[in-house]
Design goal:
Layout: H1 2-14, E1 19-26, E2 29-30, E3 37-38, E4 44-46, E5 49-53, E6 58-63, H2 75-83, E7 92-97, H3 104-112, E8 122-125, H4 131-138
Parallel strand pairs: 1-7, 7-8
Antiparallel strand pairs: 1-5, 2-4, 3-4, 5-6
């Protein structure tokens, strides 16, 4: 992890933005290694969990995993490790991920501002559309819905 910190600190000097948009995703990498374990898709694989820093165009943090490790395994711990790699000038963090990141501990961590450096961390994380989700969704009054588009996010005013 120390190498990642040094590399990202150097990257930050090249382009000293104060925002880090982080994308977390596990990727299956097929292999023929005898010791490799079978993935949920039925082939031998490794499944690194990568954390991509959009503004810098670099992998901020990665964790090498066996192919049978669920993509959602210990997402909060990995996210915290990735945050620890960000240089000091970063003040705002946003995270996006697929449904593997839909975990209450991670969502709570982001939404309650537990991180002393970044405070509340905005997130866009996928959710499996279950019967319970649909039921909760249908109970929200039409007047409660607000657009998520923000011109400032897109460089506008």
């Amino acid at each position: 992890m120390e190498i990642n910190k040094e590399r990202t600190a150097f990257s930050g000097f090249q382009n000293s933005g104060s925002t880090a948009t982080i994308d977390m995703d596990a990727t299956l990498v097929s292999t023929n290694k005898i010791d490799a374990l079978f993935s949920y898709k039925g082939f031998k694989a490794y499944q690194p969990l990568n954390t991509w820093w959009f503004e810098q165009g670099i992998i901020l943090h990665t964790e090498f995993r066996d192919g049978n490790v669920p993509a959602g395994f210990q997402q909060l711990r990995v996210f915290k490790d990735a945050l620890g790699c960000l240089p000091e000038q970063v003040q705002t963090v946003r995270v996006s991920s697929d449904t593997a990141c839909y975990q209450h501990d991670l969502l709570r961590y982001c939404s309650t501002g537990e991180n002393s450096q970044f405070g509340v961390i905005e997130f866009a994380i996928g959710c499996n559309v279950t019967k319970e989700f649909k039921k909760a969704f249908e109970q929200i009054e039409e007047s409660e819905w607000k657009p998520i588009y923000n011109a400032a996010w897109c460089g506008g005013s």
